[in-house]
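Journal club prep — side note

Before the paper discussion, L.F. wants everyone to see what a predicted structure for a comparable chain looks like in token form. Sequence:
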Amino acid sequence: MKFHSLQRRLVLLFVVWVLALCVLATFAVHFFPRDSTWAWRLHYAMPIGAGVVFMVAGVFIVRRGLSPFWVLRERLAEVRDGRSARLDGEYPVEVTPLVDDLNMLLEDRERRVARAVAKAGDLAHGLKTPIAVLLQDIERTDTAGQHELAASMRRQVERMRRQVDSHLAQARATASAAVPGAGANVADAICGLVRTMERLYAERGLSIGVDVPPELTVRVPLEDLEEMVGNVLDNACKWAASHVSVTATSRASCIVVHVDDDGPGLAASMREQVLRRGVRADEGSPGSGLGLAIVRDLADAYTGSIVLDRAPAGGVRAILTLPSQPRS
């Protein structure tokens, strides 16, 4: 039998000690003379009692010696959950070099993430001007009467813009996921997006119901949460007949957001396909087919997920699962 746990080895050692003491006690009871005086019996019993005391003291000392490892495990969990940026606390001299190296590694990672975020922002800023210039040229081409050429160019520029947004969103999500403390309130984000959608689809008279507890938070930056929920909500409003509902619940260490519509629905065979890049449920509709794919990429970056199912009203239910933000 293999004991990979140090704690199990210590338990085994404790059991062996107890057995040894039992053997010693049996020997002392049965083999020293029965007619011996109490002083003689005490002479045998005192070493056994001392052994028990030493055994208990040894177990206590070992537990105290292992306690820094349990503290270190808790600190690592705090870093993983985004509640802390480094490993704080006091540790034995044997463990301190390891903790120092881990803190240096965390600081180096944070610097690298900061540089990656800055480069992503520079890239986004550098691409805005060329795309804006191309759009202006397209408008002039359309004004000059070359409508077909302008429409083709507009589609390609829009496709390029969506591709850029997708890659920048992934880079931002990967960087943000490595930064502790990033989080957003789900109710605030959803209520803001619902107000925007109500204005965008005011002519259709859509009703959007919201049932989101105010205390729910996710371990995702606000802009990425809005990107994911916004894409899903916009897709639901696009296909809904008259009503869209948004609900959010807490499950274990996750927050689950449901976005339902009462539209025509989607065949089961298409639900996974539309989450892929460039795939649209209706090829005749405008768009590049990247909206739900971006949502999936962002959710994956934050160890979350998105799946599509049938809504109770017959339309599509989008189920977005994201890690919850631990309460400090």
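L.F.'s comment for the group: The chain has a mean pLDDT of 78. Keep this in mind when we get to the figures.
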